[in-house]
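User: Structure please.
Assistant: Input sequence and predicted structure:
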Amino acid sequence: MPPSQRTVLRQRVEMKSRSVDGGDLSRETIAEQIEGAKARVADLRRLDAEVVDEIDAKMLVILAGQRHRAALATALARAENELNRAVNAPLPSGINPTEWLPNEILFLIFLALPYAGACQLVCRRWHGVCRHAAIKKKIQNGRWEAYALGWRLPRQLSGNLNSVYCLAVGGNGGVFSGTKDKPIRMWSTDDGQNLMTLEGHSERVYSVTTDSTGRVFSASADGSIRAWSSEDGAQISTLLGHTDAVVSLALSGHVLFSGSKDQTIRLWCTTTSTPLATIIAHDGAVYALAAAPDGTVYSGSADSTICRFGPDGEHLQTLLGHDGDVYALAVSENGTVFSGSRDFSVRVWSGLTGCLLRTLYGHEDAVFALAVGHNNTVFSGSSDTTIRVWCGDTGHQRYVLRGHTGFVETLAFGPDGRLYSGARDETSICVW
């Protein structure tokens, strides 16, 4: 047998003998391992039971919390419903819902509103505050002062506008604008959205006015006057007679006055859409017309004069004083007449005698627009791009409003006290 085989055989015999000699030791080792494993299994089972118990306890707590939360949600909903019912319930007479408001906070609320007079319906306290002359005057002054100082900015209406020549506020809550673009647009006074477009004129629209029945009248450079329905925008009638551009309109009852560059004033029956009379009283274009509360009508012309007419067109008086074209007219509730001219001035006339009461200077260019607000406050718009606020009783200039970058062509007040201004600029219409 070769030596290598003998070596291998010897190794195998030694290994087997060692295995036989250590057999008892291997059984003891296995038993120890079994006992140790049993102990570990027992410990793990005990820990598992403890974890299960802990989870069960926490689940009980969670379930209890969920039930408690559901009960709270039900109670909260019930309380909110009770609060809503209490808030919306009518108040017994004599209870003031704003009694807790300090006067300073109440005043700030009024300043934030375009027309504080509507607040007199809230309660007796607000009614008394709104009717107090000094407080009303302070509130109005504070509003325009905020605009003049830049603390408040006017809202702008925009939408394919190009040089706004005229504005009128209708009783249905719409603002009508006439522009260089020919169509007449109706805007919402609530959100400023373009509600309707009235198309029919072939040239720019210079003047627009509304009556109590909801009709809209427009005057254009095409020489026509058109009547429209403010409900659906349908054209009702076309009034023809002028031989040049029609640039001004005014309503006195059921009679429509129209002024033209043909130097005439024509009267029309708004009920039948028929002509009533033709007046030749000026030697220049009739740029402005305004009706007074008593039915009389005033006209302003390029000949620098102002004429006064009766409701039937009878020429009553001629007012002299301006040194340039009269572009704008406005009449207050007490009959006082205000006129704006190319001579940069605003003049104040007595509605009773026609006498010149005072002349207001401040603008640096021609005055194209006038409007009279609450408390006889007068607003004038000019080609100097500003709107100036005057005391109609004293002639004192109170504020200068800056919101346009072009000629301020037109001003109009809404029933809620908002002032609308139109100009030849990118902003076109501002709401103050």
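The helical segments are 3-21, 23-88, 103-111, 124-131, 133-148.
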